[in-house]
Design brief:
single chain, 14 helices, globular, binds iron/sulfur cluster
Length: 504
């Protein structure tokens, strides 16, 4: 199969860089439902222009390219072993080219393999079928949304919704609860795949497979079709909005299947995918491996631009910040302020935070801006180049951040989804703020990085190292200030009240 390798490399590259048309269509209509000038609308502007930038530059839409998961169908006589080997080679090649972030970490040693290969990575699902061609579908679903997957064992009692019983009404409550819990963490607006029934492990698998359906299809089962439509309507009344900023659009898709279960079990499994809903597929000639057809794409429909310009329109009210920041500068910022950072900032996520608990920082963090980000970086002749650099979910650093602020004098933390009460208290006491960048906008933010002067702790792997990034006009929104105010806490409270209204 002389074309198999090139076809697979193209599938991986396109999946990572070019959002499928059904997702583009949903995002385009969703964007106009937000009120201009709001944080939700600003988030949409950046997300939509990021989608265009990724396509134009063939860069990763989001820096977190997830656990590559392949669904392969082969006719009898085709070697699945040969296909598996070629997929592994092309995953490594796509990683080398910066289309995938090195994401495969040994769970015992913590070592990143550097090429996305390792025990059980990537993930394969092989099946034989009666057709003459090979079909390969790929989902790239990042850690932020993977962490928000949820599984309920009904009957159970849910916050704001009360008891969920073993019937469709109970299922409805579980799904709404999962969408509400994902706020801010899974880069809303998102889409969900749901499985009612099965066992724990297969239920999650079937829920994820629902994400292979197009967002605009209609469930052939009328009862499930009605449930899907009802969830879409109710979830979008919650007010979670893009990035959990509050707003009109929370979900862009809901796909539900049902599978038989054991009499003693009743699981509802929810697979949450973010707006960076990356899945594509190809049909291949079984003899040559050449692509005969793209799935999810309509050759008669060109890929439309999502926006006219780049980013979001400046209002003139943005606050320019140049690190290192003083305590007075941090205390002057208020929730809702939009800032434009120019100068040096440092990345730090899980490994760096754990490291800082026992070791001094490799750089002076006094007044620093600390960015929760695991970028895609490539070493070129001129030095390190930032290929993708959106924020990661900040709440994972909640056990550490208050100490980092107190010990080292960090004045601004950038990430997504907000942080908890301990960090908020430290910000108030020592004078620091939390800035929410737009999750998934990896190309938009990569373009603000003018230079990478240094890297520290590279032994943690590329995503976990501490990168010094010299940025220009890096946009973020103050969502937790030094006065104890938190947009995230406000939205959680307000959406919780809305959820309660849906308890029936
Ligand atoms: S868009 Fe957000 S949730 Fe989705 S993969 Fe990227 S960082 Fe994770």
């Amino acid at each position: 199969m002389e074309f198999l390798a090139s076809s697979l490399l193209e599938l991986i590259t396109q999946t990572s860089t070019n959002l499928p048309p059904d997702v583009r269509a949903q995002m385009a209509t969703a964007g106009v439902r937000e009120v201009p000038g709001t944080q939700a609308s600003q988030a949409f502007s950046i997300i939509l222009s990021n989608i265009d930038m990724a396509n134009e530059g063939e860069g990763a839409i989001c820096q977190d390219t997830g656990m590559p998961t392949f669904f392969v169908h082969t006719p009898p006589g085709v070697s699945q072993l040969a296909i598996k080997k070629t997929i592994q080679e092309m995953v490594a090649e796509a990683t080398k080219r910066g289309k995938l972030r090195p994401n495969s970490v040994d769970s015992l040693t913590g070592k990143n393999s550097g090429n996305n290969l390792g025990e059980e990575t990537p993930v394969f699902h092989f099946e034989q079928w009666e057709e003459d061609e090979i079909e390969i579908r790929l989902i790239l679903k990042g850690g932020g949304c993977e962490n928000t997957n949820a599984q309920y064992s009904v009957p159970c009692v849910l916050d704001h919704l009360g008891r969920a019983d073993r019937n469709l009404e109970g299922v409805r409550k579980c799904i709404l609860h999962a969408v509400w819990k994902a706020q801010g963490l899974g880069c809303a607006p998102g889409a969900i795949g749901v499985c009612i029934g099965s066992d724990r492990a297969h239920g999650y698998d079937l829920a994820k497979r629902q994400l292979l359906r197009t967002l605009d299809d209609v469930n052939p089962n009328p009862e499930l079709a009605k449930l899907e439509a009802g969830i879409m309507e109710e979830a979008n009344k919650l007010g979670v909005g893009p990035m959990g900023f509050g707003g009109n659009v929370t979900l862009i898709g809901c796909k539900i299947t049902a599978a038989n279960r054991l009499p003693a079990s009743f699981f509802v499994s929810v697979a949450y995918d973010c707006w960076a809903f990356r899945r594509l597929g190809v049909r291949l000639d079984a003899k040559t491996g050449a692509i005969t057809k793209w799935l999810y794409r309509d050759p008669s429909r060109p890929v439309d631009q999502m926006t006219e310009g780049e980013g979001f329109p400046l209002t003139g009210r943005e606050i320019a910040l140049t690190p290192p920041l003083t305590e007075a500068q941090a205390r002057a910022l208020k929730v809702g302020d939009v800032v434009l950072i120019s100068g040096d900032m440092f990345t730090g996520r899980d490994s760096v935070h754990a490291h800082l608990m026992k070791n001094p920082p490799p750089v002076d963090l006094n007044g620093a801006v600390l960015y929760h980000c695991g970028p895609v970086m490539l070493k070129e002749a001129s030095g390190w180049v930032t290929k993708a650099a959106g924020p990661t979910t900040s709440i994972r650093e909640e056990p550490y951040e208050a100490d980092v602020i107190k010990r080292y004098g960090v004045r601004a933390v950038i990430g997504k989804g907000g942080m908890g009460a301990k960090t908020s208290a430290a910000m108030k006491e020592f004078g620091a703020v939390y800035l929410n960048a737009i999750g998934g906008a990896a190309q938009y933010y990569a373009r603000t990085v003018e230079q990478v002067p240094a890297v520290h702790l590279l032994e943690f792997g590329i995503p976990e190292a501490m990168w010094q990034m010299r940025v220009k006009d890096f946009m973020a929104i103050v969502t937790m200030d030094a006065h104890g105010k938190s947009l995230h806490a406000d939205v959680e409270r307000a959406t919780g009240e809305e959820l309660e209204k849906l308890s029936r």
